Amino acid sequence: DGFSVQELGGDLIFLSLDGLRTIAGTEKIGDVELGTLSKPIQRRIQDVVANRANITSTVIRGKSQYRIFYPTSATEIAASVRGVLGTLKRTPQGGVGFEWADIKGLKPSSMDSDFISGVEYVIEGGFDGYVRQQESTTVFTFDGENIIALYRSPDLSLGDAGIRKLMQRVILNYEVEGTIAAELRIRYDSDSIDVPQPEALDITSPGGTAVYGAAASLYASAVYGSSGTPVFRQSIEGSGFLIAVKINHNSSNRPFTLNSYQFEFTPGGRR
């Protein structure tokens, strides 16, 4: 699709029938999988391909991010329109790969981005005839409503799927930009209804951390030299053969970045 072609990370990304691909990976003879970036979200790509009549895309260079939107029609309600975000991230092994996410609520007919006097602007044209600027808000809501963000990790076997894990603690490392309000949920055995699931835990803002621009960062009350990357260590209950972390963020506060999470557990019996 011609409206999906964008340059990011020194390569061209485009949408083909089997997913989002790169020119460099596709031109390597026999390396079919190397060129396909979107295998982890293949189900979503099938929706994109099915609605490719209204595709538009752009890149956010400051975030190393590729965005593609695919409204089903010009009359579709904006709140139900989905898009796909692909962000270049460094992997734990030292390489570079894409992380994928869904986005809802934007219904662009066409998009573009570029630098003007050194400032990046992301512009979209709507089916309603209006031109809007993305990435421009000074508040952390969307049309006055809270922005709901969800993260769920894969179901982890922690070495052996046949051994029950008696969970003790979860340790989160996250980076904040200000006050946060989010919930942490531990999910056992792929959210099985036959397994008791613990109640949600509140992820608190780090006390005393000074962040420039945050209302809570007051002179003479913030801690000098404090870190904006706190560690959240929380006792958890329950047990299961598989475990996952789920984080819900539904507030008008600033966003935060989850850097890592670890589990402490005692091995139980084998099934």
Question: What does this molecule look like?
Answer:
The chain is mostly beta strands and about 270 residues long. The protein is about 5% helix and about 45% strand. The chain is built from 3 helices and 19 strands. The protein has helices at about 25, 30-35, 40-50; strands spanning about 5-10, 10-15, 20, 55-60, 65-70, 80-90, 95-105, 110-115, 120-125, 130-135, 140, 145-150, 165-175, 180-190, 200-205, 230-235, 240, 245-250, 255-270. The strands form 5 sheets. The protein has a 5-stranded antiparallel β-sheet with strand order 11-12-18-14-15, with no helix packed on it. Strands 4-5-6-7 form a 4-stranded antiparallel β-sheet, with no helix packed on it. Strands 13, 16, 17 and 19 form a 4-stranded antiparallel β-sheet that branches. A hairpin with a 2-residue loop joins strand 11 (about 140) and strand 12. The longest helix is centred in the first third of the chain and has 9 residues, at about 40-50. It is globular, with a radius of gyration of 21 Å. The model has no long low-confidence stretch (mean pLDDT about 85).
Attribute tags:
271 residues; 4-stranded antiparallel beta sheet; mainly beta; 5-stranded antiparallel beta sheet; 6% helix
Mean pLDDT: 83
Give the overall silhouette. globular
Helix-strand pattern: EEEHHHEEEEEEEEEEEEEEEE
Kindly report the spatial arrangement of strands forming the biggest sheet. 11-12-18-14-15
